[in-house]
Design goal:
Oligomer: single chain
Strand content: 25-35%
Shape: globular
Number of helices: 7
CATH topology of the largest domain: UDP N-Acetylglucosamine Acyltransferase, domain 1
Distance between the termini: 42 Å
CATH class of the largest domain: Mainly Beta
Helix content: 10-25%
Number of domains: 2
Structural class: alpha/beta
Largest sheet: 10 strands, parallel
């Protein structure tokens, strides 16, 4: 049996505040989905206990067996681990590491019964398992996803398919196109599949004039309107996107329906970008981008990295986001020029706190507009985080 566990969730803030690291996208698929595809079998999850109730609401099929390890020998893989090929046999009591000595996973028969992400972390700190280096890599921070984003989007491609509606006045270069049932591509749309595949998932709509360069993934029920989507772009479920996007991940339910540029960025769910808001993803001196994560200054090792924006954050019109920015969940970023590089969660502008009652009310309205009701577990998680951050 295969388990995927999270053991470094703090490093994935703000994306991991309202979801396990297992459910963060690394390309078109999440870390968990990629391992399921690779292994060819169902993958169970081991996550923080504080997220179990929320997982029951968002992924009830996963929550049913979450944090439950039956007797026997199993394979445990780290959320953040990415493999290019199926794993060879893993011996019991063996630790798999990548070339940087980062833990990819382990095989053991020493774990059984109820487990948790916290107990897995304790196990790894105390273990003396022998190490074996195998092909693969481990992302310990979300910006490391961008080091090979185009490759991962290409690997996630499910194959050529044309079941949707392709207007005769749309243009397709190359053949690596997947157009799923219910998807529509209108006149004036250019799909360039010569350098990478393009997926237009079920019931998605592409309205011209639009240019899409592969590799690119456009998720179910998403609408793309007068946009330029550059290589490496991933749009999750039910997004609304216009303007220019390059090598970025919109997790789901993101609204960027206006002009403006977003590059090398990861946006959580329910983020709204006002007209002409834009981010920088390259420093003027072309040096490595540095970030401030929980007060620690870290080099990303990348010359191109834009920003991380947490769930339910609103970016006002005309906002300019600096290179390497991290913006927390439920922040209201007021426009009119360059914003701060680090904006805490639950912020209202640069100096004020978003009132809990108001943010919950707004979130419920926003979600209802897409036919989603806020569950009690999500509400309780938001309140718990609010008390932890704000007091």
């Amino acid at each position: 049996m295969v388990f995927i566990y999270e053991d470094s969730w703090e490093r994935f803030e703000p994306l991991s505040a309202l979801r396990p690291v297992t459910e963060i996208r690394c390309g078109a698929k999440t870390f968990r989905e990629k391992l399921e595809k690779l292994s060819g079998e169902e993958v169970r999850v081991i996550i923080r206990e504080e997220l179990l109730d929320l997982l029951c609401e968002t992924h009830p099929e996963l929550a049913r067996d979450a944090n439950n390890v039956p007797q026997g020998r199993h394979l445990f893989l780290a959320a953040g681990a990415v493999f290019a090929e199926p794993l060879s046999a893993v011996k019991s009591d063996e630790l798999m590491v990548d070339k940087a000595d980062r833990i990819l996973g382990f095989g053991t028969d020493a774990l059984s019964g109820y487990q948790s992400a916290e107990s897995i972390r304790d196990f790894l700190e105390e273990t003396d398992l022998s190490k074996r280096r195998i092909p693969g890599r481990r992302a310990l921070y979300p910006w490391e996803i961008f080091a090979s984003l185009e490759l991962e989007v290409t690997r996630d491609f499910e194959g050529e398919l044309v079941e949707g509606e392709l207007d005769p006045h749309a243009t397709v270069y190359g053949s690596a196109l997947r157009l799923e049932e219910g998807a529509r591509v209108e006149a004036g749309t250019v799909l360039d599949c010569r350098k990478g595949p393009v997926t237009v998932a079920r019931n998605a709509l592409l309205k011209g004039p639009t240019l899409i360069e592969g590799p690119c993934y456009i998720g179910p029920d998403t609408i793309v309107d007068s946009a330029r989507l550059r290589a490496g772009t991933v749009l999750g479920q039910c997004c609304r996107v216009g303007g220019e996007v390059e090598a970025s991940i919109f997790h789901a339910y993101v609204n960027k329906h206006h002009e403006g540029f977003i590059g090398h960025a990861y946006l959580g769910e329910w983020v709204n970008l006002g007209a002409m808001s834009a981010n920088s993803d390259l420093k003027n001196n072309y040096s490595e981008v540095k970030v401030n994560l929980a007060g620690e200054i870290l080099s990303t090792g990348l010359t191109k990295f834009g920003c991380l924006i947490g769930d339910h954050t609103k970016i006002a019109i005309g906002t300019l986001i600096p290179t390497g920015s991290i913006i927390g969940i439920f922040a209201n970023v007021l426009g009119g020029g360059l914003c701060s590089k680090n904006i805490p969660p639950f912020s209202w502008g640069e100096a004020n706190v978003y009132e809990l009652k108001k943010l919950l009310s707004t979130a419920e309205v926003v979600m209802q507009r897409r036919g989603i009701q806020m569950g009690e577990a999500l509400k309780e998680r938001i309140i718990a985080l609010y008390k932890a951050y704000v007091g």
